[in-house]
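ok trying this again, last paste got cut off
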Amino acid sequence: MEIFPTGGISYHDGELEFTNVAFDQSAVVEKAKQFLVGKGQDVGELVVKSVRPLIETKLDLTGSGNDTSRVIAYQVEFQRVINGLALANGDVVRIILDNGGIKDYWNGLRSVRGTGQPEKLIPVEKAFEELEANLDRAFQMSDKAEISEISLVYYVSNMAKLQSVVHPAWAFKLQEGTYAYVDAFTGKILLDY
């Protein structure tokens, strides 16, 4: 697939209201989708990647353990799926909303066109061998790093790196928020620096 240079879109509308949110996670996803439709986004190709409550906690400093917490907003993150594979590594939409509506919006979706020519993918075992052999050098991690998830995705480099083709890649989740990607055609580790 071809990818064309695009920039992220950012929108900010005031500060959070710091009141208890009056809706649940399913309602927040619908509100976020409605906002995106209003911005002309095709939500049919998006899937919910995560919904995170933003929690305010007031500590009770008397030592009696009466701390209080409340949800003051939600962050919804959408990821795009093409041909059944997620576009990974930054191709996302993030929305923060509270009782007052959308407070923050980041659209980092790239302009992707075409499906390319089918090529034979390397087996995940070969990708794992490449990762294991280079884990310390590429990621400064021990070769004993625990992999909690493996999936096939389309790899999208970060916004600062020019990219003209989106490749399928094996994604290895190494720890919370850290993924390693191995090109599913060439078997080479994909790095953004």
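PB: full thing came through this time. The radius of gyration is 20 Å.
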